[in-house]
Amino acid sequence: MFAATALALLVVMALALARAFLGPTLYDRILAVNNFGTKTVLLLAVMDFLSGRPDFLDIAIVYALINFISVIGVLRFFEYAQQKTVEQGE
Amino acid sequence: MRHALALSLLLSCFWLVNSGHYTPLILSFMVASVFFVVVLSHAMDVVDGEAQPLHITFRLPVYVIWLAKEVFLANIAVAACVWRGPGSISPRTIRVRASQNTDVGVVIYANSITLTPGTVSIDLEGKDIVVHALTEAAEADLLTGEMDRRVCRVEG
Amino acid sequence: MIDMLLDILSWGLLISGAFFCLTGGIGLIRFPEFFSRIHAASLTDTLGASLILMGLMFQAGISLTLAKLIMIMILSLIAGTTASHAMAKAALKSGMCPLDQAALSRRPEVKSYTDKT
């Protein structure tokens, strides 16, 4: 049962990656990468039960935090980068 | 003082759950690090009613249960939209007035809107929340104002 | 007996969570533009993640693992909400207009809002 859930999560991650490659705009890609990250957290939690090793949950917590911070950081970066180009253009 | 105590209690629970080792040495590390973080937060001036809204603690669970039900129903509606295809959605942007008095209330309201699939709060202009809704049904749900009233009640 | 019931319950939760995650993933591919795709992504973030984590909670029983799973659930709900709001706001500020013909014809005040951005 855990294997089936893990498989479904892998399929979702593949779909998110496809959107990240296809995505016409930058924000589509960021959305897809964020979704990929949250699915990774779930996959790690399921892997914890699949392999019976209790360490994976700690990694899942840390991954959730890193994923959130990195998405916010990337958004900040592009927000400032775009403001700068607008200011230079004017 | 009340807020500092609540913060240290929360941080201690966080440490205890994450550590899993309960020897005296490790527990003394916990006390030291919690004390350090509380002193640091106090120096940053974030130990107050805005960062730890204690007055809503007992009213929040009722709201969270109601919100969970709403999120569940909204999830099923959006899932149906996905399976029916792009023809079944009609994206729209609306503004809703947040009638809460405090910032904490407005933040709870805007976060609840985003948490419910089918509606995402995009921007906050004064007391108006700009919301992107996926379907007409999601928009109508929001415009009944029940969530607004319930958040007002949580806020007290 | 109780164990078997708990197992069946947790399998049901895991399967329905996986179903909602798959639905969200398909919506991510299928929906036409960015602001609709946010809704599909929030589908996997809220109910999909919660159901899978709840299914795991029934397998864990009363232990430290349960507390960690609850922590992951609260964390992912709050972080997911904040991240989708941040993405929507950043996209709006960068000049992307949400697709809303229905609202354009009906509400003049919304039209003025979209014109401004």
Describe the structure.
The complex is a heterotrimer of chains A (90), B (156) and C (117). Chain A has 90 residues and is mainly alpha-helical. Chain A has one domain. Chain A is built from three helices and no strands. In chain A, α2 (26-51) runs antiparallel to α3. The mean pLDDT of chain A is 86. Chain B has two domains: 2-43; 56-155, Alpha-Beta Plaits (2-Layer Sandwich), CATH 3.30.70. Chain B is built from six helices and three strands; from the N terminus they run αααβαββαα. Chain B has a three-stranded antiparallel beta sheet with strand order 1-3-2. In chain B, α1 packs across α2 (24-43) and α4 (103-115) packs across α6 (146-155). The model of chain B has no long low-confidence stretch (mean pLDDT 86). Chain C has one domain. Chain C is built from five helices and no strands. Chain C has 117 residues and is an all-alpha fold. The longest helix of chain C has 30 residues, at 64-93. At the A-C interface, α1, α2 and α3 of A face α1, α2 and α3 of C.
